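Q: What does the predicted 3D structure of Mismatch repair endonuclease PMS2 look like?
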Amino acid sequence: MEAAAPAPALEPAKAIKAIDRKSVHQICSGQVVLNLGTAVKELVENSLDAGATNVDIKLKDYGAELIEVSDNGSGVEEENFEGLTLKHYTSKIQDFSDLIHVETFGFRGEALSSLCALSDVTIFTCHKSAKVGTRLVFDHNGKITQKTPYPRQQGTTVSVQQLFYTLPVRHKEFQRNIKKEYAKMVQILQAYCIVSKGVRINCTNQVGQGKKSSVVSTTGSPNLKENIGAVFGQKQLQSLIPFVQLPPNETVCEEYGLDTTDMPQNFYSITGFVSRCDHGVGRSATDRQFFFINQRPCDPAKVAKLVNEIYHLYNKHQYPFIVLNICVDSECVDINVTPDKRQILLQEEKLLLAILKTSLIEMFGSDVNKLNVNQKLLDIAGGINAKCESSEGNRIMTLARLRESFSLHQMTESNFQSPKKVKRQHSSPRQLPSFDTTLSPESEKDNTDSGFCSTSAESDVGYNMPEAGSCISSERVANSPEEEFCDSKEELQNECLETAGQSEKSLECDVQFLGTVHELNRVNDWNNPNKLSQVASSSSPSKKCFKSEADDLKADTCPEEKNTKNYVASVDALVEVKKKTVSLEFSMKVLAEKVKKVIRQQQKRTETRNYRRFKAKISPGENKVAEDELRKEISKEMFAKMEIIGQFNLGFIIAKLNSDLFIIDQHATDEKYNFEMLQQHTVLQGQKLIVPQNLNLTAVNETVLIENLEIFRKNGFDFVINENAPVTQRVKLLSLPTSKNWTFGPQDIDEMIFMLSDCPGVMCRPSRVRQMFASRACRKSVMIGTALNIQEMRKLVTHMGEIEHPWNCPHGRPTMRHIASLDLISPE
């Protein structure tokens, strides 16, 4: 007997070993210094911690080539040279318990060590006790490779060359996005310029061999407001009001679940400035919002969200400029949450939010420039009340009644001119349930350019028929599906009575018959004859439709009623069936072959059947999900391959791609195509100003504008550039774009600068130019109610494949939705 083969030996588990020290250093360093902003921030913090009153930052090629931070701080003593760039070496704390009382920016001992691992670092320093300075060159492990005397005054200079070049992938990405990184770095630096009182901070940038340009500069003022003026100009100060702290009121305390009796007093002390809530005073983005905790710049997400939400109660379309310094006991805050120390944890955070909410509401609410609309309405109501009492006795006019009398429903009813128009309006074919469309009446198509759009992304009303000139009340659309069906059924029956004998009769009765089928489909219990008979009797339109006809016509025109009744009555009737025996030929061989054939067909069908690619409902709440699915599954080339099935309701195109059916809004899709064409090809004409206008730009914004002059010119803005003028005064506005009654100004320039800071060199338009193009595109597009032939529908669908974003119109209406997959309905 042969011996059994030995079982294969199990492969021994790999031993757990430490990562080599060099790799650990590189891995961890990449998580400490994330970008250009972090690198500059760490070096500036070191200078401020050293007691510097003068900090100079020099950048070459936006920081990609060189970052150099020089200060007049205390300098580094010779015995600390070795530990200066070693991991976790710090003079700020000795053990973990010291974290509670740390008052410096840095304390982890990681910044210089990480910069050594990611770049070439050289440090020049001179301590106040030293006779001459020293130049130190470090390797990537933070070890000193050169140490030579170097003459300089007291202080330290850190030079960082070729940031991230030790990580090739990140270095390439860093260089590709350098201008975006630079813009973010400037915003971080602005925070330190604002909060550092008595410290002069100056930052310059040099591109290639060109002239140095100032990025940001402060004068070393001991005053927070003067620092804001130095960074953002005196014009910004004119829009600011000081933050006035108030204790949280009872309503706000109840909202945040705070106990007013057990609330700590004087826990927080908040100072700073916020822009007024007048329209035009705020910003188009959140680019000037700075939050500090104990003078430390940070990103408190909940605080920022609350401030913006309250500001939007008073100024819906803008964001505030805000500088807030929150002082709290150091034992109640944890600053060691993330390596960049921007995320901070607070005790009693709800109390802070309650204080901010109460204070901001009071500040904005008591603004002398605001008009108390409610009081005005009450005054008007009082005046009307006096007249009503004099003419109609003791009738009371309240504010609620005043609102009711001006409600959309009442005004819509009164706008109709005749009963016939009312009937036509209500009996017009409805839009698909929950398909979020707002359609423009054809009567709005004119040659004037009013600056107002004929459609709204937020409205959710029915069709605007050209004859009525008004839209269906939004209250109707808000009804449940059952109410909508009942309302439309009654209206269709009335219309059928009125137009009996006319050519429209057969069409409307068909619509009613479809309604009956819809009602039958809604019955869940098909085995219950009572429910079936109820549906058949209540939803059958035949009786009411031809009620006014002669009796002899009833039998001829309403056969479906009789058939339905006979069917319903016989659902559960007992039927006697005569049984009959029939002999069948049977063969196992034939049966086996048939079973194999069926199995093969099922396997083939399973392999070829597509998965369910479109799951989103046709509903306003699922627009984002639907657009993501379409973007994923439909490429630009597919639009040209779609088969046009036909036009639905004179407003929608039904198209088929393989086994998928789609519904396309003819007006919305044409509007989006026209809008993108206007965006790409329109060059706005500028109108010259009598006198060139100063813009009061910051140094970095001025640089962004100069580098993107061509994009501004395509938008109709023209400037005169004086290279010899002081920084922040080099650019003057020469001409502004105008188009009929649309006018533009410096706010649009600020908005474009913000967009170009994030995406340099990319063509963009101010939001008001987009509104103008959207308005024009709407008026020149195919209207709802226009009959289209196959060629015209094909043209609209093909255009969808020629634009960047075909999924919704400029006003937010969806252009296309998936209806059904024929494979799932019928696998055969």
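A (community wiki): The structure tokens above were generated from the sequence. Confidence is low (pLDDT under 50) at residues 368-397, 408-527, 531-569. The longest strand covers residues 686-694.
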